[in-house]
Amino acid sequence: MTAPGLPTPSGESGVLPRRRRRWLPFASPLTWRILAVNMVAPVLLVGGLFYLDRYKNELIAAELESLRIRAEMVAAALGEGAVIDSGFALAELSPQMARQMVRRLSPPARVRARLFSQQGVELADSRLLLSASMMIQVEDLPDPERGWFATTFRRIYDFITDSHLVDDHLPVYHERSRPLASDYNEVTQALAGDPAWAIRTRNHRLLLSTAVPVQRYKQVLGAVMVSSSGDDIAKSLFKVRLTIFQAFAFALVITITLSLYLAGTIARPIRRLAAAAERVRRGHGRHPSIPDLTRRHDEIGELSGALRDMTEALWQRMDAIEAFAADVAHEIKNPLTSLRSAVETVSRVTDPEQQRKLMAIIQDDVGRLDRLISDISDASRIDAELSRAETAPVEMLGMLQALAEVYRDTGAAESVNIVIEATPDDPLEVMGIESRLVQILRNLISNALSFSPPESTLSLRAGREGRWVVIRVEDQGPGIPENKLEAIFDRFYSERPKAEKFGTHSGLGLSISKQIAEAHGGALRAANRLGPDGSVEGASFTLRLPAAEIKPPAAPERPSPKNPDRASAKK
Q1: DSSP character at residue 286
Q2: For 77-82, what is the mean pLDDT?
Q3: Element (DSSP H or E) covering residue 114
Q4: Which of 365-374, 486-495, 549-558 is the least confident region?
Q5: CA distance 523 to 485
Q6: What is the per-residue pLDDT for 553?
Q7: First-to-last CA distance in the chain?
Q8: pLDDT above 80: residue 520
């Protein structure tokens, strides 16, 4: 941790060191969420390791069928080679021959075979060997495991399967020292002449057994029961589950790697953008900047571009506010200085005529301050108003006609003739704020009237140019100096006629008009009207606004064929 107030290795206070920043994606909550979402599929895959019941049942059925075939082969061999038939009495099994045949036939079949007589006594068992002094039981050992991965997985697998038995509903196998046929239901059924099978558990392992009768000319001489453990089935299931687990391990590694890569391409740039935004908020000056990630061509690149544009717009707005404040202070200082001088002088002057002149100057300065403050207030509110107000369809042709009528009726146009040139049947509809659009046209018309000589014509031309509504206000005045065509839209710039009284205008009208036009997605430009000989014949202001979409007229309703009078009734 970096102590408060001390610079970090990166040279910026409050920024994580490089070593910690390198591992930042692993500690990001977004990284853990991406990992969690991407690991759902592999976890569900490995969860299926212990739900292979259908495959297990198919293996058990196949194993029981195989045991039945092997049991019938042993029974057939015993019925032919281990039967004593004298011809005078009923045939019977020879215990000595039966033991030898059972012992010889069982190992190739990989089963444990036992032979029971008709009386239910066990005559032979393939796992018992006779010696000179005792009987020895033989049992095969399991194959040794190979490979540390398989051994480790086998131990974990055995622990889980032993702790969560899926075959706990099966009977448990018990074997007495001297077993009888009555101990096994399948043997009892086989002595009755019907093959039978059974499934039991022994030490958490499956034990499968099948019993078939030993017959001689349809005479049941005994029953053979062959049994085998479910180790082969368990090995098959283990191999399938091991394969699934290996696929899961591989998929898990790939998932984690890709998730970390994905998190690195998402979380790290977002943290960089957040840190840069924090530096911009807390920093001083313009040195902190938003990283440029627009070359990514994705959403984060778009976010980076938007943040960069927003930051630049904020700096521009701050510069504009700073410049506006400086301009306001400068413009207010002039009438205040004049007002102060007049007030200080009027108290020392005794001549009534001089006092009246000074009072007139004071009144003019107060009126100039009032107009200036009103225009400054309007200019400062316009941004907030344009961002909050909702736009609506506005017919520009009707607005021009109404304004021209107002200027004619009130005498504001004096001897100037106002002419409107437009297509009568096109209302020239735009989307905007009507009061602010009226303010633009009023400023342009008033400005043109102030420069128009008597008996001249003021032309208001309106029409469409592609998807734009274009309005031109043209006068026959002295025009605009060529080097001032852009400067006239600056704040507090005033270029007035010589006969006009000083201080009548604040110089904010055209600046506010241009600001309103750009807020509506349009533009306001100034130019001079030139004659055939290249001389200036007047000024021209062009207002361009995006035209509103024209909706096609609704198609008339057609009468229904079933009820043609219904449409007529609606009309």
Answers
A1: S
A2: 86
A3: strand 112-117
A4: 549-558
A5: 14
A6: 53
A7: 81
A8: yes
How many residues does this entry show for the chain?
Answer: 571
**Is-contact 212 75, C-beta < 8 A?**
yes
Q: How far is CA 473 from the centre of its chain?
A: 50
The 3-state DSSP class for residue 153 equals helix
Q: Which residues contact 422 (CB under 8 A, 6 or more apart)?
A: 397, 400, 428, 460, 461, 462, 463
Q: Which of 100-114, 342-356, 555-569 has the lowest mean pLDDT?
A: 555-569
Task: Give the β-pairing of 523-530 and 468-474.
Answer: unpaired
Q: Kindly state the tokens that stand for 40.
A: 């759902």
Residue 410 has pLDDT above 90, yes or no: no
pLDDT at 552 over 70: no
Residue type, 4: P
Characterize 447-478 residue by residue with b for buried, 16 or more Cβ atoms within 10 angstroms of its Cβ, and e for exposed.
bbbebbeeebebbbbbeeeeebbbbbbbbbbb
Distance between CA atoms of residues 423 and 464, nearest Å: 10
pLDDT at residue 8, rounded to an integer: 41
Q: Which of 273, 339, 327 is nearest to 300 (CA)?
A: 273
Model confidence band, residue 3 (pLDDT cutoffs 50, 70, 90): very low
219 Cβ neighbours under 8 A, 6+ residues apart:
90, 91
Q: Residue 518 corresponds to which amino acid? A: E
- E-only strand ranges, 351-399: 392-395
Q: Which residues contact 564 (CB under 8 A, 6 or more apart)?
A: none
Helix or strand (DSSP H, E) at 525:
strand 523-530
- Angle, in degrees to the nearest 10, between helices 352-388 and 299-346: 170
CA distances from 559 to 556, 564, 571 (A): 10, 5, 11
What's the CA dihedral at 169, 175, 180, 181 to 10 degrees? 30
